[in-house]
Amino acid sequence: MIDDKKFIGKTIQSLRKKADIKQSELAEKIGISEKHLSKIETGRNFPSLNNFLRMAQVLNFSLSDFGIKETATEDKYKELLLKLIYSSTEKESKAYYEMVETLNKIIKNC
């Protein structure tokens, strides 16, 4: 049986090394201590969802990198939008949301 903490930690460590980013750099970019990141990478702690999403943004990974089969979609635009959303800042996310809401209102009135 696979230990989830160790599997997630080793995968994050591998993705970080593949991206040629030092542990201290990644920790700083996602706003945690290097010690905490070390505990995540060695399987002693799980990353919080927020930190995991920040790591995904910095290291440019997806759930498929963790062996999770993502829902296959024929709509490449949804996939592109999701990548854009997950890599955006809070300000950008708000702007995207407002644009989509406006477009939805226009479409409904047509």
How are the elements arranged and paired?
Blueprint lengths: L3 H15 L4 H8 L3 H8 L7 H11 L16 H11 L3 H19 L2
Structure characterization notes:
- This protein is mostly helical and 110 residues long.
- The chain folds into 2 domains: 4-66, lambda repressor-like DNA-binding domains (434 Repressor (Amino-terminal Domain), Orthogonal Bundle), CATH 1.10.260.40; 76-108, no CATH class.
- Helices cover 65% and strands 0% of the residues.
- The protein is built from 6 helices and no strands.
- The chain is elongated.
- The model has no long low-confidence stretch (mean pLDDT 86).
Task: Provide a compact summary of the structure.
The protein has about 110 residues and is mostly helical. The protein has helices at about 5-20, 25-30, 35-40, 50-60, 75-85, 90-110. The protein is built from six helices and no strands.
Number of helices: 6
CATH superfamily of the largest domain: lambda repressor-like DNA-binding domains
Gross morphology: elongated
Q: What is the percentage of strand-forming residues? A: under 5%
Which regions have little confidence, pLDDT < 50, spanning 5+ residues?
Answer: none
The CATH topology of the largest domain turns out to be 434 Repressor (Amino-terminal Domain)
Average the pLDDT over all residues and give the rounded result.
86
CATH class of the largest domain: Mainly Alpha
**Order of secondary-structure elements:** HHHHHH
Largest sheet: none
Helix content: 55-70%
What is the number of domains? 2
| Radius of gyration (Å) | 17 Å
Report, as a whole number of angstroms, the end-to-end distance. 55 Å
Total beta strand runs: 0
- Specify the structural class: mainly alpha
Named at the architecture level, the CATH assignment of the largest domain is Orthogonal Bundle
